[in-house]
Design goal:
This protein is mainly β. The protein is 0% helix and 59% strand.
C-alpha cells in the first residue's frame, strides 16, 4: 500500500488542447491504452468538447472539484455533475462535456469489459474512517478535506492511497473530508492476469 500525492503525477496534455490527464496507476504495470485491465487517472477539463472513445472499456467518472460539468451521452439529455457526483458509461459511447462555470477536475476509473470490474463509492470522513479494499486491489482518493494516515502522514485533496492485490487491504484515515473508494475485481473465467493491482 502506498501514498501517491497528486502533485507528483505527470500531466499529459490532450491532443485537442481541452485539458490534461494525470495517470495514477494501470494494471498490469506499464500497460498502455490497448492492454490495461484497469486504469486510474485524474483529468482536468479546461474547456468543453468531445471525449476520446475507448471501445470495450467501462468507465466511471467522479467529479472531484470545480463548479460542475454536464455530460451528454450519444446525443441524449445532459447528466449534470457537481463535486462528488459520478456517472457510469461505456467507452464507446459518444460523450460531450459542457462546463457550467470554469474548469473541473475528475477521477476516471476504467476497466476492460469481460476482464475486470470496479465498484466505486463515497465514504464520509468524520474524525476516522476505515476503508476495506478487499484482496483484489483498489484505491482511496481524498476528494475534499484534510486527512492523515495512521502513521501521521498527511493526505491532501487529489492524493491517492493505492493498494496492490494479493491480500486483504484496509486503509485507515483520520481527519474530515470526502473520500472516493475504488475496489477492483477480476471477472470470473477471465483469462490472463488477475484484474487487480497497481
Amino acid at each position: 500500500m502506498r501514498l501517491i500525492p497528486y502533485d507528483r503525477l505527470t500531466a499529459t496534455p490532450w491532443k485537442n488542447g481541452g485539458g490534461e490527464t494525470r495517470e495514477i496507476a494501470a494494471f498490469p504495470a506499464g500497460a498502455g491504452y490497448d492492454d490495461f485491465a484497469w486504469r486510474l487517472s485524474i483529468a482536468t477539463i479546461a474547456e468543453g468538447g468531445a471525449f476520446s472513445a475507448f471501445p470495450g472499456i467501462d468507465r466511471t467518472l467522479i467529479l472531484l472539484s470545480g463548479r460542475g460539468v454536464a455530460l451528454r451521452l450519444d446525443g441524449g439529455p445532459d447528466h449534470v455533475l457537481h463535486p462528488g457526483d459520478s456517472l457510469d458509461f461505456a467507452g464507446e459511447q459518444a460523450v460531450r462535456s459542457r462546463l457550467l462555470d470554469g474548469p473541473v477536475r475528475d477521477l476516471n476509473v476504467m476497466t476492460r469489459r469481460g476482464l475486470a470490474a470496479a465498484r466505486v463509492d463515497r465514504v464520509t470522513l468524520e474524525d476516522r474512517a476505515v476503508c476495506d479494499l478487499g484482496d483484489g486491489g483498489g484505491a482511496v482518493i481524498l476528494r475534499d478535506g484534510q486527512a492523515s494516515l495512521s502513521d501521521g502522514t498527511p493526505v491532501g485533496p487529489g492524493d491517492t492511497i493505492l493498494h496492490d492485490p494479493g491480500k486483504a487491504g484496509t486503509v485507515v484515515l483520520t481527519g474530515h473530508g470526502d473520500l472516493v473508494r475504488v475496489r477492483f475485481r477480476r471477472i470470473d473465467g477471465a483469462s490472463g492476469h488477475p484484474a487487480a493491482g497497481g
